[in-house]
Amino acid sequence: MDCKLAVSLMHDYLDDDLSKEQQLELKTHMLSCPDCRMQFKELEQTDMLMYSLTHHTPSASLELTERIMNSLPKQKKQQLWLTWVKRHPAITAAAIFVLVMLFSTVSFWDQDTQLVVKGSDLDQVVIEGNTVIVPEGKSIAGNLTVENGKTQIYGDVQGNLTVIDGSLYQASTAHISGQVKSIDQAMDWIWYKITNMFSDVAYR
Predict the structure, then answer these.
(1) How many CB atoms neighbour CB 171 within 10 A?
(2) What pTM, to 2 d.p., does this model score?
(3) Residue 97 scores a pLDDT above 60
(4) What is the dihedral of CA 32, 38, 43, 48, to 10 degrees?
(5) Each residue of 37-70: pLDDT tens digit?
(6) What residue intervals traverse the membrane (predicted)?
(7) Structural domain that includes position 19
(8) Among 130, 143, 133, which residue's Cα sits nearest to residue 178?
(9) How far is C-alpha 184 from the chain's CA centre?
(10) CATH number, domain with residue 10
(11) Same domain assignment for residues 93 and 37
(12) Within a domain: residue 177?
């Protein structure tokens, strides 16, 4: 008998499905083959284990089930904020958007040092380095905004004057018909940008 046939007969032997002649042949082969003897021993142990698992008492079954369940990793309870987020996705998305815009705007505020001049009548303005000058006798029809620079007003501004992260000097000859805003903090700048954005949308 070869080993392949012996291994196939081992299963039938354990299930008590072999004739006496086949049992005798298998035992004779295993006496002369240590590999098959070892394989049969392992199969026999596995068969005994399976038998014990399928024929245990109900109380042992419950105990085994409880032991297995206790060994499983515990599912983490969802935190309250996560539940709230799932229930209010629109508010969460809006809040995240505002936070991202806030942080990016503050970062931009810290990094931006370039002089920016905005207005409708800028040909009346003189720029020397980072200084913006409205000379005496000159008049700007509309608003004037200066970012990251010094502003010196000697003439007229027929509108609002906004100075962002800079300094403002008004001579005795200066005349500003609108409001004068000096913004030198990040939150004031953010609020200014938001109000301007809504104003632009309203006028379109």
Answers:
(1) 13
(2) 0.40
(3) yes
(4) 110
(5) 898 888 888 777 766 655 555 555 566 667 766 7
(6) 90-109
(7) 3-71
(8) 143
(9) 32
(10) 1.10.10
(11) no
(12) yes
